[in-house]
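Shipment paperwork, digital attachment
Item: protein structure file
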Amino acid sequence: MIHDDPSYPRRNEASGQGWQEHFVDQLAASKTHSVGEAVKQCVSYVTLSNFATVDEMQILHQAAMDVKTQFSNNKQDDNNNDGTHVMGATVAAHYNCTRYSIETLLNSNAKSISAVFLNRLLRFLGHWEEEDETKEPIVDIMMSELGRMVFGHADWKNSTVKWYAEPDDTGTLHPEPKVNVYDIGGYFRIHEDGMDLTLLVVFNDSFEGGGTAFYCHHDDDNDDHDEGESEIKTPDRIERAKSGTAIIWGGLMKHAGLPITSGQRAIFVGSFDLLEKVE
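Attachment content:
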């Protein structure tokens, strides 16, 4: 809970081995008991440094580009085939951003890496095990608490993952995780994911503009825009993390992908619930 008592001690942004908390609502987050509570309340988010390797990111990005090439070729064939359907969100949600569902569109190597990312995150939120079995596992109490708070339990091994899914223009559902590719002018409008937790992994930083904007004070009634018009709301915080960094936040956090002014931005993103299996 967020404590309104002015005498209640306030805290600073928390950090630990490989992670850093970032306040979005400075006052509200400082009044929470812990980083887990702040993420659950959607007043802060966490970055995980060196989450993905260069090879992992390259394989996922290339798999998406292969589908893009296939899509372009199919649209030009003699059978008037309209190609592989890759658009997983409407223009009302984004502009000049193509979303490639790893499960339905990308190759087996991409699927394997996606599974590695999920396991890596859940292991981090439970306990980070050393590859060398002779070493004791490093248990991060604050990250373990974050996991328990956002999912409501800590039974990772006996749980089912439910990914957010959305239809393409044919009505076919394409679940996350997805590789999002933003070209020049591309952005994603302010929205909430509505799941327990979102994981975003930054593939590259060789572009200008862009970044993930977070909002704590945003009026949905003033969110009407023409097609191709970018968000003009002032974010409470903008995250432009380095390549290989992961960002995690709660499902009711309002956020957006800011417009790219040059280059191309690519990310892995997936929003999910972690459901306890019913015996």
